[in-house]
């Protein structure tokens, strides 16, 4: 039974571990990132444009983005009613599910669940007003790509990503150093950076990287893969569909 390190936010850990266990993995968990509410200076304008019908597209890049947006509103029902009059875009199936659960119709889900996939999918948007509600660590490729296509882009950061720290992180590093982790699963660049920061703080970063390169490292998305490469880590698995389930499936097949 292969041991996989899952480092997703605490809110995803239980379900992620259950899914991994059902696919035959032994699981070690340590959340390298967590999410907390954030309201930036752009949020009021975002809500105003949606309520006034001035926006053409509203993009959500995560289920968290959906939930944190709605939590800030005094009248979410009216906001949802206005959203349903415009094009609502979900980056992938989990985000789509969160939107549908809240009664929001989804117009577009790209074939490739990534910022690049969204940019490629959206056509004929020159002069269109595009809203993006996402985290404080969203990839710049989305905004830049839409602007290059001639869209008027507004971004609001509705939550931020932080680095938790407890005994699970020390235990994960100790297991990694002992060669007891077979697969390292990374789902974001921030997760990679926090993982490396903890390893560096413990004085074991070089050793951990060496060991990771002897094991299997999986990444969701090119930005995550590029961040790992920047630390000298070889990514052996990157699924075409950017979902955690697909990452698990390909890690299992790679290690068979």
TrEMBL record:
Record CDD domains: HemD (cd06578)
Give all residue intervals belonging to the Tetrapyrrole biosynthesis uroporphyrinogen III synthase domain. Answer: 17-248
What is the name of the protein in this document?
Uroporphyrinogen III synthase HEM4
Q: Which Pfam families match?
A: HEM4
Q: Cross-referenced NCBIfam families, in alphabetical order?
A: PRK05928.2-5
Taxonomic placement: Archaea, Methanobacteriati, Methanobacteriota, Stenosarchaea group, Methanomicrobia
Q: Name one GO molecular function term.
A: uroporphyrinogen-III synthase activity
Species: Candidatus Methanoperedens nitratireducens
Gene Ontology biological-process entries:
uroporphyrinogen III biosynthetic process
